[in-house]
Amino acid sequence: MKKTILIGAALAAMTGAAEGMKLVFPAENQRNWESRTRVAVGAEAGEDDLVALCAGTQRCETAWRIASAKVPLKAGTAGYALDFEIYADADWIRCEVSETWGSSVEFLDAADKTVGRRPLDIFFHKKTYAKFRFSGEVPEGAVAAHVVFGVDGPNLPPGQRVAVRKATFRAIPKGGPIPAE
Q1: How many CB atoms lie within 10 A of CB 93?
Q2: Tens of pLDDT along 117-134?
Q3: Do residues 53 and 161 lie in contact, with contact meaning Cβ atoms separated by under 8 Å?
Q4: Within the chain, how many helices (H) and strands (E) appear?
């Protein structure tokens, strides 16, 4: 029985079929334009991995972003799969994004310089968690990756929120199948 479990785990790791690594979003990895949109993480985010919210009575700016902790990539990593669910109190149909404020997967070299970036086009309707998968190849020279969630607009009205949950990142070894989006 133990031998079967070990063989199954080894095959899953080799094919990239194993569960992804749960992403962690450290509070110190958040930035926003005018410091009026707050991103809650950890226990403060409840069941979610992160919650961006406008706490107050005035309209908040939505130029915000938060990066996950770095995910190390082993030598021979050829691809990745990112899975998550996202919710918002307003439709995310025409979001304004930029390189600074948009959602993306960023690949880093040994000196923490960006060697590749995959923008995440996230469009969905309000008041429900939408499931997303993004996948692709890891650029040459990448030794780590982090996932950034953020947007430049529209602005969040007071009391509204954007939440992300079940965010996982899976590194796919060379020769392993890269899952479809």
Answers
A1: 10
A2: 999 988 888 888 999 999
A3: yes
A4: 1, 12
CB 30 within 8 A of CB 24: no
In which element (H, E) is residue 144 found? strand 144-151
For 144, the token pair is 């780590």
Spatial separation of the C-alpha atoms in residues 69 and 147, rounded to whole Å? 8
Answer yes or no: pTM beyond 0.90: no
Token pair recorded at residue 68: 């996950």
**Residue 177 corresponds to which tokens in the numbers above?**
């199948």
User: What own/partner pairs with CB < 8 Å and gap ≥ 24 does 90-95 have?
Assistant: 90/126, 90/154, 90/156, 90/157, 90/160, 91/124, 91/125, 91/126, 92/122, 92/123, 92/124, 92/125, 92/126, 92/151, 92/162, 93/123, 93/125, 94/154, 95/122, 95/123, 95/151, 95/152, 95/153, 95/154
Do residues 103 and 97 lie in contact, with contact meaning Cβ atoms separated by under 8 Å? yes
- CA distances in angstroms from 172 to 42, 59, 77, 87, listed in the order given: 27, 42, 6, 27
Structure tokens at 135: 């996948």
In sequence order, the β-bridge partners of residue 38 are 53
Q: Tell me the residue type at 24.
A: V
pLDDT digits (tens, 9 = 90+) for 157-175: 787 888 999 999 999 999 9
Q: Which two tokens stand for residue 130?
A: 């939408």
